[in-house]
Write a structure and sequence with these properties.
alpha/beta, 5-stranded parallel beta sheet
C-alpha cells in the first residue's frame, strides 16, 4: 500500500528536498506541501494523507499548534493523520510538547536521508519513532507527574491481562517487538496482537503514548531494568 505524505515547512527548499527524496520511493506518494501550520491543516483535511511531516517553527501557526488541531479535530472531522515532527532543534520542550500533542515521532532535519525514509515507514506502520535519548528524557519528565494522575492511570491497568501488563512494561523499557518475543518466548505476531489490545484497552494511539502511560501509571519507574 502506498503511504500518502504531505510536507509542512516554511522553507521552500526544505519542502522540495524532502518531496524529491520521498517521491523517489516506490511506496511513498507526496500528495501536497504547505508553508505553515494553518495551511497544513487545510491541506491535510482535503488531501487526507497518512503522514504529515510537520516542522516545529513556522509563521501563521507553528507545528505544535497545527498538530493539536489535526489530532483533536472538531466534530464532523474524521480524518486524523499520523504526525512526524521535524526540526533543527533537539530541545526537550519541543519533544515533550509534540508527543503530548499526539505526534508519533520526532526527527531532526539533519538526520541522514535514509532515516527520514525509514521514519515515514515506521510511523505509517503504526509504530512510534522514539530514539533512546528521547525516551530517557521522557522518563525523567513523566516520572515527576502528579500522584493524582498516576492513580487514575494505575486503575486503568486493571483492565489489562497479566501478559498485556508485562508487554506494556517491556515496551516502556524500550524493547522492540522481536526483543519482547524473545524475552517472553512468544511469536512476534503474538506480541503484536498483545500490543494492539493494550493500545485499544487504554485508548492509546501508539507506542509513544504507551511509554508515557507506563511511567505515569507507575508500572515502570526510572532506573528500573
Amino acid at each position: 500500500m502506498t503511504i500518502r505524505v504531505i510536507i509542512v515547512d516554511d522553507q521552500a527548499m526544505v519542502r522540495a528536498g524532502f518531496a524529491a527524496l520521498l517521491a523517489a520511493q516506490s511506496d511513498i506518494d507526496v500528495v501536497g506541501e504547505a508553508p505553515n501550520g494553518k495551511e497544513g491543516v487545510v491541506l491535510s483535511r482535503t488531501a487526507h494523507p497518512d503522514i504529515v511531516l510537520m516542522d516545529v517553527r513556522m509563521p501563521e501557526m507553528d507545528g505544535l499548534a497545527a498538530t493539536r488541531v489535526l489530532l483533536d479535530p472538531p466534530p464532523g472531522v474524521v480524518h486524523r493523520p499520523k504526525v512526524l515532527m521535524l526540526t533543527t532543534f533537539d530541545a526537550d520542550d519541543y519533544i515533550f510538547e509534540a508527543l503530548r500533542a499526539g505526534a508519533s515521532g520526532f526527527l531532526l532535519k539533519d538526520a541522514p536521508p535514509a532515516d527520514l525514509i525509514s521514519a515515514v515507514r515506521v510511523v505509517a506502520g503504526g509504530d512510534a519513532l522514539l530514539a533512546p535519548s528521547v525516551t530517557r528524557r521522557l522518563i525523567a519528565e513523566f516520572a515527576e507527574r502528579k500522584t493524582s494522575s498516576r492513580r487514575a492511570r494505575s486503575l486503568a491497568l486493571n483492565g489489562l491481562t497479566p501478559r498485556e501488563t508485562e508487554v506494556l512494561g517491556l515496551i516502556a523499557r524500550g524493547l522492540s517487538n522481536q526483543e519482547i518475543a524473545d524475552r517472553l518466548v512468544l511469536a512476534e505476531q503474538t506480541v503484536k496482537t498483545h500490543i494492539g489490545r493494550v493500545l485499544a484497552k487504554l485508548g492509546l494511539r501508539d507506542r509513544a503514548q504507551a511509554v508515557i502511560f507506563a511511567y505515569e501509571s507507575g508500572l515502570v519507574t526510572p532506573g528500573e531494568q
